[in-house]
Write a structure and sequence with these properties.
- The structure holds 2 protein chains of 2 kinds.
- Chain A is built from 3 helices and 6 strands.
- Chain A is an alpha+beta fold.
- In chain A, strands 2-1-6-5-4-3 form a 6-stranded mixed beta sheet, with helices on one face.
- Chain A starts with a helix and ends in a 5-residue tail after the last strand.
- By secondary structure, chain B is of the alpha+beta class.
- Chain B has a single domain (2-130), classed as Nuclear Transport Factor 2, Chain: A (Roll).
- Chain B has helices spanning 2-26, 30-34, 57-64; strands at 37-44, 52-53, 72-82, 86-98, 104-118, 121-130.
- Chain B has a 6-stranded mixed beta sheet.
- In chain B, a hairpin with a 7-residue loop joins strand 1 and strand 2 (52-53).
- The termini of chain B are far apart.
- The chains are: A alpha+beta, B alpha+beta.
- Chains A and B meet through strand 3, strand 4, strand 5 and strand 6 of A and strand 3, strand 4, strand 5 and strand 6 of B.
Chain lengths: 130, 147
């Protein structure tokens, strides 16, 4: 069981690192490669939520308007908790493109579907200032 | 198929745990809220700081103190994904009520909960609550959005 969890954590870490790398390079197919069709996204900009792959894609069209390739979309801290077929990841990220670079929080929910981990939920945010 | 039969009771357990957690928030009972949290609970809160680690009963109590009566805390669009001992949920929450400074709150925010089963009981290992931020250059919190 312990070994299984370690393997799962390694697989998920690799998946999230390659996703972040795809975001930095603006390669949309690679960004979407490990997402389930019914992904629910809570993004930094409005709306409150984006449901399904089409709406998820649109959040990246918007993102690419203020982020340029190779600017930061970096993982600063990443903790993964994996069960047999459900997992979550909790991260502190850093985003460039807006001045100044800002840190944000990221929570990712995953399911193992047909042997592969897929992202079914992402929550990106910054704390609300008064 | 074996997984499906296992998943259903877990979902029901989590739904009832979230109900009890929300009930504790409405009643401003910090001890009851914290009782649902794991020892190494990590919170990404609505307001700064970026993150807090460990149950924060004092912070909750201070926040509860800014509300006059019960807190309106209505959970909608709750989706739960549960394995045998790891799970997560996401929902939109409508927060309403009267504040001690005389203002009225009426805000929709996003909530994600990450859960682990500890000693046979589901505990909240991580909570993430937020509103979007306006990307019009103002970076104002978008507290006026409705689903």
């Amino acid at each position: 069981m312990m070994q299984q969890a370690e393997t799962a954590e390694r697989q998920i870490r690799t998946l999230i690192e390659s996703w972040a790398d795809a975001v930095r390079r603006h390669v949309l197919p690679a960004i979407l490669a490990h997402h389930e069709q019914n992904i629910v996204m809570f993004d930094v900009p409005p709306p409150l939520q984006s449901r399904g792959m089409d709406e998820y894609k649109k959040t990246w069209d918007l993102f690419f308007k203020y982020h340029k390739p190779s600017q930061a979309f970096d993982i600063e801290e990443l903790e993964i908790t994996a069960g047999e077929d459900v997992a979550f990841a909790v991260a502190i990220m850093r985003c460039g493109g807006l001045l100044p670079e800002f840190p944000f929080r990221l929570t990712v929910g995953l399911r193992k579907i047909d042997g592969d981990w897929q992202i079914v939920h992402e929550h990106h945010s910054v704390p609300a200032e008064d | 198929m074996a997984n499906q039969t296992l998943t259903k009771p877990a979902e029901a357990q989590i739904r009832s745990m979230i109900d009890s957690w929300a009930q504790a928030i409405r009643a401003k009972d910090a001890a009851a809220v914290v009782a649902h949290q794991a020892q190494d609970f990590v919170q990404f809160d609505f307001a700064p700081p970026l993150q807090t680690v460990g149950p924060n009963s004092k912070g909750l109590q201070d926040w509860f103190g800014t509300w006059r009566g019960r807190i309106g805390f209505e959970i909608t669009d709750l989706h739960i994904t549960a394995g045998d001992d790891v799970a997560f949920s996401h929902a939109l929450i409508h927060l309403t009520g009267s504040r001690t400074d005389g203002s009225e709150s009426d805000v929709w925010f996003r909530n994600t909960l990450c859960l682990s089963k500890v000693g046979g009981v589901w505990k909240i290992a991580h909570g993430h609550e937020s509103v979007p931020m306006h990307m019009d250059g103002s970076f104002r919190a978008a507290i006026d959005l409705k689903p």
